Amino acid sequence: MSAAAGPGYSKSEIMIAASARRLAGAANCFVGVGLPNIVCNLAQRTVAPELQLVYESGVFGARPERLPLSIGDPTLATGATAITSMFELFAFYLQAGLIDVAFLGGAQIDRFGNLNTTVIGDYASPTVRLPGSGGACEIAIHAKRILVIMRQAQRSFVDRIDFCTSPGHSGDPSRDAARGWHGSGPTDVVTDLGTYVFDEASGEMTLATLHPGVTLEQVRAGMGWEPAVAASLGETPPPTPEELRTIREELDPGGAYTK
Amino acid sequence: MTGSKVTTMHDAVRELVHDGDTVAIEGFTHLICFAAGHEIIRQRRRDLTLARMTPDVVYDQMIGAGVAGKLIFSWMGNPGVGNLHAVRRRIERADPEPLEIEEYSHFGMVCRYMAGASNLPFFPLRSYYESDIPVVNPKIVPMTSPYDDGDQVFVVPPLKPDVTIVHAQRADAGGDTQIWGLLGCQKEAAFAAHRVIVVVEEVVEESVIRRDPNRTVIPGVVVDAVVEAPFGCHPSFAQGYYDRDNAFYLEWDRIAKDPDTLEAWLREWVYGTADHAEYVQKMGAARWDGLKPGPALSGEVDYGRYA
Asked: Which residues, at least 6 apart from B260, have a Cβ–Cβ distance to it below 8 Å?
């Protein structure tokens, strides 16, 4: 893409950069494949050099030498800090509260960050059968913070999700505070149009920044409800040249996830 | 080590896997025993209940071939690629027949195997709060702690497969089995099962196992049969032996989309081969050379000699 024709970075690249900055200070992160994997690797090279990558396949402290193509890629095992049984990973690490941040996404999300990765339509006779929970349900409950990365569309940002696989906020923050879970639920949503936080008083997803060049109308067109907008709506800082260089030369030279 | 349990895949499946059985072929991305799945297809088993945390391509092949009536799982998909088309056809359109499902989260499935392996009536976990998963699966039950009225957990029932099939890097002839790399639920699923088939890249001398007992994941005492089947995980991988064949996982997406191409693939690669050795030979040496990793040795520890 030439400089004259656009901003000089792709939608994926601004999503990656914006997400990576949200890992500043995190000690460890539950990683998925695709964008979250690149996000974590970028954060390790920028804002969170001590970040330990944790995979539900039973790897703590992975040091992948290539871009993993699944969460069970052999490159995650070689050179890791620890490989655990899956029971230990879920019980001792996740359920006991050791995980700082996790990435989740889904086919559908509602305004309170509840996620559906199970079915579109009726459970017993679904229009689309999706993969299901995997570890997402317990990750949503136990990771201290949840970051959501999803592309925006009316069919995915919906007023009512068809199935709640992974719980988010209930819409009543005082009730959520009394849950007694380690997790505070989703704290940030990063999309191809902007970034969102969850309002402390209402628990509702609230537009915090628009990516450069994106309008509020575009955001409304990509949502199934009228979005709450922060009083101090800002602009997402674009990826820095160094962030772009790291993504393009080191993390995803083939452009598999970032074009 | 007790007596030799080494046999062929044909005989192990013939003797230990029966129509109507609950069968678990575990392995989390790593060490998924496709060779056993193929032999079950070849022997045309029917009405199996297939259990597995992550039904992936091996169960798409088996379910596409019609061996199963039910699936117990926590995540279904072609990892890193997309969908399982044969499984989805049966769930979404009952095409060519319905498939019953029983669904958990990963932690729930792990705990089911833990309960089965530990002879417990259920296993508690902190998950499923405010999720619809227990709504559609009544076997996931909320329970209040007997020690604290304010503390609620969910419990899941034991999963005790009739047969668990585990792939591993190596075992001795008595079934003492060693695994390194991702462990998945191989150990829990083996201890939970009534019968266990261990399939390995190499059958080794008992002395090899005894030199490094910390690496033994499954002892021969719970193993009924040992089968040597090099490349038996393909297109899954065996850490240190061969890489995941990602090209095949991508290829499967195209093959499974159309029931006719799926059937043609089964005819050529499963029904049309006598056993896994023939499948390996048919794939060709170049394919295997391309999957060979470089070395990364673990170093050694000194257990000490206390005579």
From this structure: none
Residue A1 scores a pLDDT above 70? no
Contacts 24+ apart (CB under 8 A), A251-257: A251/A38, A251/A41, A251/A42, A251/A67, A252/A38, A252/A67, A256/A67, A257/A12, A257/A34, A257/A35, A257/A37, A257/A38, A257/A67
Q: Are A28 and A50 a contacting pair, CB within 8 Å?
A: no
Q: Does A5 score more than 70 pLDDT?
A: no
Cβ–Cβ below 8 Å for A73 and B29 = yes
- Cβ separation A137–B131 shorter than 8 A: yes
CB B85 within 8 A of CB B55: no
**CA proximity to B23, closest of B197, B157, B199:** B197
Confirm if A68 and A251 have CB atoms less than 8 A apart. no
List of chain A residues whose C-beta atoms are within 8 Å of the C-beta of residue B103? 118, 132-133
Here the tokens at position B259 are 């029931």
Q: Give the separation between CA A167 and CA B88, rounded to whole angstroms.
A: 25
pTM of the full structure:
0.96
Q: What is the ipTM of this complex?
A: 0.96
> What is the enclosing helix (H) or strand (E) of A19?
helix A11-21
CA distance B107 to B53: 9
The Cα–Cα gap between B294 and A129 comes to 39
State the Cα–Cα distance between residues A47 and A44, nearest whole angstrom.
7
